[in-house]
Specification:
It is built from no helices and 11 strands. It is mostly beta strands and 118 residues long. Strand 9 and strand 10 form a beta hairpin. It is globular, with a radius of gyration of 14 Å. The N and C termini lie far apart (40 Å).
């Protein structure tokens, strides 16, 4: 079983920055993709950013140019650098690892709160 632990959330003023981290409890072979999602109160969970095993990235339109997803395979960790934060970025942020076991299995972190407010 794989556990994902997120960190780096908190309260930040508009225009500020935060860096989220998501560390896996052990090395994972055959990771298909890693991603960050978020869920604001009363809204559905939405994709923020994803990075594939080949290094291809994709972002939600609302965060393009402000957020950057990256990974450190040696540390089994994926990051989300968030700059120029806006109040509408306030949400619980979750990381997800999608692992190829012959079928795709998703592992989720427990979530970390990001609040953007003055």
């Amino acid at each position: 079983q794989v556990q994902l632990v997120e960190s780096g959330g908190g309260l930040v003023q508009p225009g500020g920055s935060l860096r989220l981290s998501c560390a896996a409890s052990r090395s994972i072979f055959s990771v298909y993709a890693m991603g960050w999602y978020r869920q604001a109160p009363g809204k559905q969970r939405e994709l923020v950013a994803v990075i594939t095993s080949g290094g291809k990235t994709n972002y939600a339109d609302s965060v393009k140019g402000r957020f950057t997803i990256s990974r450190d395979n040696a540390k089994n960790t994926v990051y989300l650098q968030m700059n120029s934060l806006k109040p509408e970025d306030t949400a619980v942020y979750y990381c997800k690892y999608q692992v190829d076991l012959g079928y795709l299995k998703d592992y989720w972190g427990q979530g970390t709160q990001v609040t953007v407010s003055s």
